[in-house]
Design goal:
By secondary structure, the protein is of the alpha+beta class. It contains four helices and seven strands; from the N terminus they run βααββββββαα.
């Protein structure tokens, strides 16, 4: 039985922590200086809460542990779920570019998000996860074994990464 454990490295989350901290400082800091009746509270407070939620989400990803085995894939933590390979019914791969004008994974300027589903449960992991390529390859192999139909975007992204042939179902 093969089993592997994957985590989000702290250095890959450092930028998200910095963005959350800066956002909280720039929106929450001025809240401390405003008078209680100021209309700016209605603008800054929701933004501060949004940045705080983003920071908590980042902390949740840092504590997440993804375990892959012959039976399936399971993520622990607040965003965790267990997906059985034999009941896999969703595999989606999306590419998000961090630069304008880049729309393909082979451009290398962005990140991938893998969404897996089974029995109404969903698990989303992104390419910052340690050894993401092995997780993706295993999920694709399981999807092919099950004859799972992939949407056009997923097929395009998998082809760009060399994981499936052009025109594969």
């Amino acid at each position: 039985m093969s089993r592997s454990i994957h985590r989000y490295p702290t250095r890959s989350l450092a930028g998200d922590y910095a963005r959350a901290g800066l956002g909280i400082a720039l929106t929450g800091g001025p809240l401390l200086l405003l008078s209680p009746g100021s209309a700016m509270i209605w603008v800054l407070a929701p933004l501060a809460l949004l940045f705080a939620a983003f920071g908590l989400r980042t902390a949740g990803r840092q504590t997440m542990q993804v375990e892959m085995s012959d039976e399936g894939i399971r993520a622990s933590g607040p965003f965790g779920a267990a997906i059985s390979w034999e009941r896999l019914d969703v595999l989606r791969l999306r590419y998000f570019s961090s630069k304008r004008g880049r729309s393909r994974p082979e451009d290398g300027e962005g990140w991938l998000q893998l969404a897996l589903g089974s029995d109404g449960r969903k698990l989303r992991i992104d390419s910052a996860l340690s050894d993401f390529d092995a997780v993706l390859a295993r999920a694709v192999a399981q999807a092919r074994t099950r004859g799972l139909a992939l949407d056009e975007t997923t097929r395009h992204n998998l082809h760009a990464l060399g994981l499936i042939a052009e025109g594969a179902p």
